[in-house]
Amino acid sequence: MEKFLVTNTKKAGAVNIHFKDRSTVTGIFINMRDYDELKAKNFWRVVNSKNLEQWKQTKDINLSRLFNGSGFTRLSAATK
């Protein structure tokens, strides 16, 4: 997971997150002050692509959602 984020988010930015039991989410993984704690528990903070412009301007943590990594089936670079 970490290796994918380091290599692919720098290239494409947005990522498609495929889940076992819900529809795909497109967004970016963000690194806030709780990143290391969440990563240790396999939780990831993601800003949906719909909120991306607003998040870039405000860095408002309320625009993000937490996802449990155990529900991920696949990550792929989002196409623009």
List key phrases describing it:
single chain; 80 residues; SH3 type barrels; five-stranded antiparallel beta sheet; 3 helices; 5 strands; Short-chain dehydrogenase
Spans with pLDDT under 50 lasting ≥5 residues? none
Please name the CATH topology. SH3 type barrels
- How many strand segments? 5
Shape: globular
What does the average pLDDT come to? Answer: 88
Radius of gyration, in angstroms, nearest whole number? 12 Å
* Separation of the first and last Cα atoms: 22 Å
The helix/strand class is: alpha+beta
Strand content: 25-35%
**In the residues, how many domains can be counted?**
1
Largest sheet strand order: 4-3-2-1-5
Q: N-to-C SSE series?
A: HEEHEHEE
Q: Helix amount, in percent?
A: 25-40%
The CATH top-level class label: Mainly Beta
Number of helices: 3
The biggest beta sheet reads: 5 strands, antiparallel
CATH architecture: Roll
